[in-house]
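QA checklist item 7 of 12: single-chain prediction sanity check.
[x] sequence parsed
[x] length recorded as 137
[x] structure emitted
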Amino acid sequence: MGQEFLISTDQSRIDLDFIHQYLSGKSYWAQGRSKERVKKSMAHSLCFGLFTGTQQIGFGRVVTDYVVFAWIMDLFVDPVYRGRGLGRMLIQNIVDHPELQEVNGIGLRTQDAHALYEKFNFKAIPNPEIWMFRKKN
């Protein structure tokens, strides 16, 4: 029998230690992020945990106002489980989530997964000259 995978938005199932370890130590975008900052970011997001049994093997979170915008952040699958379509499963679950269906747009940033997100109709930002961003020094 094959391995079964589940995605849940139940915050009580989320493994903060697993997420913090990956984000602060293995991701290119959150190197050194403290556990407290990871916990705070999750408290203000719609979180998606990817599990096999009770073991968490992936994560993604969405920052949203549930009307105008949603922003996918911190999405990853444990490297041991990659190559099984689980990243696609996680993204599909996010874009299909009932609370995000009326949002005007969903955005994200990536350095290396453009081809994956393009499968879900993500495109480069149109008219990038109208967008502005204030970065922390």
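[x] summary fact logged: The helical segments are 16-25, 35-43, 86-95, 114-118.
[ ] second reviewer sign-off
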